[in-house]
Specification:
- Helix 8 crosses helix 17.
- This protein folds into 3 domains: about 50 residues, Rubrerythrin, domain 2; about 180 residues, Citrate Synthase, domain 1, CATH 1.10.580; about 100 residues, Cytochrome P450-Terp, domain 2 (Cytochrome p450-Terp, domain 2).
- It is about 50% helix and about 10% strand.
- The chain has about 425 residues and is mainly α.
Length: about 425
Amino acid sequence: MSAATGKKAVLQLDGKEIELPIYSGTLGPDVIDVKDVLASGHFTFDPGFMATAACESKITFIDGDKGVLLHRGYPIDQLATQADYLETCYLLLNGELPNAEQKAEFDAKVRNHTMVHDQVSRFFNGFRRDAHPMAIMVGVVGALSAFYHNGLDIEDINHREITAIRLIAKIPTLAAWSYKYTVGQPFIYPRNDLGYAENFLHMMFATPADRDYKVNPILAKAMDRIFTLHADHEQNASTSTVRLAGSTGANPYACISSGISALWGPAHGGANEAVLKMLDEIGSVENVAEFMEKVKRKEVKLMGFGHRVYKNFDPRAKVMKQTCDEVLEALGINDPQLALAMELEKIALNDPYFVERKLYPNVDFYSGIILKAIGIPVEMFTVIFALARTVGWISHWLEMHASPYKIGRPRQLYTGETQRDIKR
């Protein structure tokens, strides 16, 4: 960050002028430093933090108007098609893509930490069998600090780094187990001879009775891309939550658990689940045309189209659509709901109403279809999102702890009662 040459903002308050520095990043709009407003006895007001930069970061950049998503400068479509998820993890954590030797070493570290403490498996028994998998994840991930408390010194860079590896390695195990627990099947332990995504799918769907179960490589590739496309997304609600929790000095497992909690919200991580619910409500292909007319009349919401950040197109969606087509072709699925989804896509991409408003299918639309086709239940969709986003969360947590930081303390515009006395 550097001061923008010759640029400053001047704010007039109560007949006085306050000069506010303007800083420039390497990309994106300049930012106005408003700290000095506090000395004048005023706060700034920005509900939802729509125009507030709460931190400085080198990890991810988004230009919503142009449909750009960069991780450490690399476009997301290149990472999704030319790198695998663990390479993307290395990039987010370290700032550069790994060479062959670094990749082999990093992959080995992750493989060596996929197992969890045996007592963690017993921890699951405290949950009801019909518990939502996200509820299980919030509890179990937060409890990891009770099992790995020998690496919780956040001032020790070695502790921070091993914790990052542990989280990336163990979250897939916990995610798969949260599914197995709710369906009453025995846990499948990780296999270190399998790739990251392949290992996750094996733990999800293999059973002790089927010792020869093999993961379809097309599905493993699709899952790896889903992980990559969801790895990080700048200062979204869950990432901001992790940073805020981290600013208190809380242990990293508690911070990641807080991120999972924020992601659980239907306005954040539940979007692809909402797509499937919408398809259920539409019912059949014959009802699509009328549904889209209702969308135009603003009688119903069209889920999985358009994006709050991307005002043009979601750069992740193109890769996800390609992956979606590959999965559906490979599986040869004749699912009425998937046919319905394809009809929705067809109308949205050709109807002038949606084209003019740039309501293109986004990453959530296609990821929901892929996950359903693979056989993953809807209640697991957000769990998989959390699995993929863990590396983004821990990368931001690491970045924050590598530099001086202050505890987060948002202000407020108080509109309640003024001071009054109790009268009896």
